Amino acid sequence: MKQKLFRRICQIVLLHACFLPVWAEGTDDLMVRETATATAAATPEATTISTVALTCPDARPGEANQWIAFRKDIRLGEVPQRAVAAIAADSKYWLWINGTLAVFEGSLKRGPNPDDSYFDEVDLAPFLRPGDNRIALLLWYFGKQGFSHKDSGRAQLRFDCPAAGIGSEGWYCRLHPAYGTAQCPPPNYRLPESSISFDARKELAGWQTAPVQEFTPAETVESSLGTLHPRPIPQWKDFGIKKLRFETRKGAGCDTVIARLPHNMQMTPILQVQDPEGGHRIGIETDHAAIGSTENLRAEYITRPGTQTYESLGWLSGQRLILTVPHGARITSLQYRETGYDTVPEGHFSCSDPFYNRFWEKGLRTIYVNARDTFFDCPERERAQWWGDIVVILNECFYTYSASLHALIRKGLWELCDWQKEDGSLYAPVPAGNWSKELPVQSLAAVSRYGIWSYYMNTGDRETVEHCYPAIRKYLDCYTIGPDGLTEYRTAGWNWGDWGENRDMHLLQTTWYCIALDGAIRMALLLDQNEDATRWQERLERVRKALNAVCWTGSAYRHPDYTGDTDDRVQALAVLGGVAGPDQYEALFDTFREKEHASCFMEKYVMEALFAIGHGDYAMERVRRRYDFMVNHPDIDTLFESWEVGVKDWRCGSVNHAWSGAPLAVLPQKMFGLYPLEAGWKRFAACPDPNIFDRCKLDFPTVSGTVAMSLRKKRGHITWDLTVPEGTTAAVSIPWVYAKASVDRTPCSAQEITLGQGRHRIRLKLAE
């Protein structure tokens, strides 16, 4: 044994002395000029990351869309039990260990605040082996600002794994010569990503494991990534590589290859191509490559001679993959890799109405394809975290997807507040490098009871309320009250209230401010900020009183200076903001039946207001009528940005928009009457409106367990089955219109009862 060990040491010393790499294809033997050595007992698990960054000496300053291949080889005496690497990059990376893909699209877009970045923590141990190990990382530097990313100024990588002896020394790199920018129209300015081109004739074959003979030492520079914050959300879920059927449509000079994807998704296409000559440029896009005159992301691939396979790494979204293939090249196989946020749809809904069943399924798909680095409004045009959109979508999440999605809401709330300007304004979208305008109604929605307070009630995450509260207080104090008792109109960067016409903008701001104050009062009381709570309560009462004195016409709310048609959005917010009282409800109901100016964004609040004033049946009717085209569209499985998309013009908006799925929150909250009364669902309401469907059921995860309810109507009886999770209680409301009621087979005459954990049956009989 000692002789074998001695001979092995001599071999290693000799090879190192001669700087001769040993490489045999199909074997594990690789030794290069620079080899790091580490053992399992070397250093503890990484918890910090150095301030030194790696970059490529050949990187071109100021140039967008650069791809850099990094290599480092290490030798391990034995594999540590855990080897957590802290990895930060501008902008994205792919990591291979010994030729095995360890991370597919690592790093999050910058940043948690205007100066800082996120870093990933990746356990390398499952991919390492005793002896020689090859580390390969492909860095994609956006090199552009966008509505979802702030550029750091240079392509850079920070990689620290003390347990495996990996730091900033001993790395090699080179610009990847095959990557470039596609010749197709560039994507619009909102997107920091570029459309990728890959020239297979310049490919670095096997570079992830081959000797680094054509690489040069990486340059170390002082990082401009700022302070690094741990990645607060999971790495992407990889659904694996799957095959696509496709059709080829012949054309003059080129053919068009079309493949329908199983659903709208975030995916990277994989092409297998035969080309005897090479040099043919294949265009790659989806059916969402443009919205009207707005260009989105595409890709292209330039062939080499022979049979080849290529995966285009910049994800696209759409329902059809479309390739333009010049004559001389031929697609022999098409595949795709779907990736996305690591969550699953654990909320289930069904009813006796096929329309709402379809709505639920399309809403689920819309949520999922709009979640990644952040929540965003749409996955094609901008991928931006607009807070009006996010407030709608976050409330859907609590009834639809597993709790892992809560982390994305938390991340967004912290970013919103940590990007606050010195003057107190909160703006969206953030992160952003080329946008800084405030949309007052969206910022107010974010800090209202529909935004951060709803997040707190559903999760019990007090830390986020504590973190965000100072920013919220500062922002709400930016608003002043005028002599008439209304808020002074805030002239911010973009005074947008909703798509469409007839927007009573001053009242949209004022009513949203009421709802924001309501949320702020709740937060102040939670945090024992009693002076703030008292001050805001007085302000809220003053504004509500002024709205009724100055703006109530007897049938609707209108600002005295507003000249357009009565705005149904304002009426909804007046109900939800506690401005309108029961004496005004019937007049408002007449207005809701006459006016339909709200877009898909604001229709959520109209729907909820109709439930609040006792007309949930009309809310469902109105939603059915307004959403009919998009819900029943046979070829698109997501919900659209506006009512006009596809009706007037397919090009006037996205067919996948976060704000359009609002009924996925309103149905559980208002029709089933299920919502938290204490943070974290420790106590929750169960007060359904049983007159909507003959049959319906819902179950969904909460942080305290699964809540479930089913309702059935039959021969004058209504039966509820309610499941209350362990450690929680349900406050059940029994409508007074029922002559007889029983709970778990025991007669009950009370209108309000409390039920503990377990499954309960409530039977109601209508009065004769």
Report on the structure:
This protein has 768 residues and is an alpha+beta fold. It has four domains: 2-235, Galactose-binding domain-like (Jelly Rolls); 238-340, Sandwich (Jelly Rolls); 386-626, Alpha/alpha barrel (Glycosyltransferase); 683-766, Maltose phosphorylase, domain 3, CATH 2.60.420.10. Helix content is 25%, strand content 29%. The strands form eight sheets. Strands 13, 14, 18, 19, 20, 21, 24, 25, 26 and 27 form a ten-stranded mixed sheet that branches. Strands 3, 5, 7, 8, 10, 12 and 15 form a seven-stranded mixed sheet that branches. A hairpin with a 2-residue loop joins strand 32 and strand 33 (717-724). The longest helix has 22 residues, at 505-526. The protein is globular, with a radius of gyration of 29 Å. The protein starts with a helix and ends with a strand.
Notable traits:
14 helices, Jelly Rolls, 768 residues, 4 domains, alpha+beta, 38 strands, Glycosyltransferase, ten-stranded mixed β-sheet, single chain, disordered N terminus, 25% helix
Q: What's a concise summary of this model?
A:
The protein is an alpha+beta fold. It has four domains: 2-235, Jelly Rolls, CATH 2.60.120; 238-340, Jelly Rolls, CATH 2.60.120.260; 386-626, Glycosyltransferase (Alpha/alpha barrel), CATH 1.50.10; 683-766, Maltose phosphorylase, domain 3, CATH 2.60.420. The protein has 14 helices and 38 strands.
